[in-house]
Amino acid sequence: MPQNKKEGIFFTTIVCFSMVLSMSAYNLLLHGQFSLSNLLVGLVPGFIVAFLFDVLVVATPAKKIAFALPINKSKKIHMIIAVSSCMVLGMVFFMSMYGVVMQFGFTQNFLGYYIGGFFSNLIMALPLQLLIVGPLCRWILSKSRQSNWLKEKNQISE
User: Fold this and answer.
1) What is the largest distance, in Å, between two alpha-carbon atoms of the chain?
2) Residues 86, 65 contacting (CB under 8 angstroms)
3) pLDDT greater than 50 at residue 110
4) Where does the signal peptide begin and end (predicted)?
5) Band of pLDDT at residue 89, cut at 50, 70 and 90
6) Which of 11, 89, 87, 13 is CA-nearest to residue 51?
7) Helices and strands counted in the chain (H then E)
8) What b-and-e string marks burial along 74-108, b requiring 16 or more CB atoms within 10 Å of the CB?
9) pLDDT average, residue stretch 82-86
10) SS3 sequence, 110-135?
11) Cβ–Cβ < 8 Å for 61, 55
12) How far apart are CA 9 and CA 55, in angstroms?
């Protein structure tokens, strides 16, 4: 897990980008609209929206909820699963809304589209985060940490 602000920003960025890329491809495939051009067109705006939701809306309450759960907080894996699961629930809640608005707009069927989208996204996003993206991004973070480029520099001038 990130140990300083620079690592936190790096980790959030790579997790967010990986999830947006994967979930965008999944949703395009699900709706029979997958093409590299469709994926690339939606990637940057989707990433920006997801990053803002993550940092400004979801992360703080998700972590508070995860830390309040009756789990063994001394076990790192329990905390990772709790925080990741809460983050996924929050992000799927907002990003499904974003996806429905982008795909269909605010129509009379918005709620139906949203509920369907929420559950189809949740069944993909949760295992994707817990089994692939989370472990891969934590590994990338550990390798980056070993290379020392993520360490925050001492700001004291000589």
Assistant:
1) 65
2) yes
3) yes
4) none
5) very high
6) 13
7) 6, 0
8) eeeeebbbbbbbbbbbbbbbbbbbebbeeeeeeee
9) 97
10) HHHHHHHHHHHHHHHHHHHHHHHHHH
11) no
12) 9
Please give the single-letter amino acid code of residue 23.
Answer: M
Assigned token pair, 66:
């995860």
CA-derived radius of gyration, the chain: 17
Mean pLDDT, residues 60-79 taken together:
96
Amino acid code (one letter) for 62: A
Predicted TM-score (pTM) of this structure: 0.90
Q: Encoding tokens for residue 70?
A: 């009756």
- Residue 69 CB neighbour total at 10 angstroms: 14
Within a 10 A sphere around the Cβ of 15, how many other Cβ atoms?
24
Q: Which residue has the tokens 């469709």?
A: 38
- Tokens encoding 57: 């809306």
Question: What are the two backbone dihedrals, phi and then psi, of residue 4, each rounded to the nearest 5 degrees?
Answer: -150, 175
Closest by CA position to 125, among listed 55, 2, 30, 44: 30
Quote the DSSP letter at residue 154: P
d(CA 116, CA 96) in angstroms, rounded, equals: 9
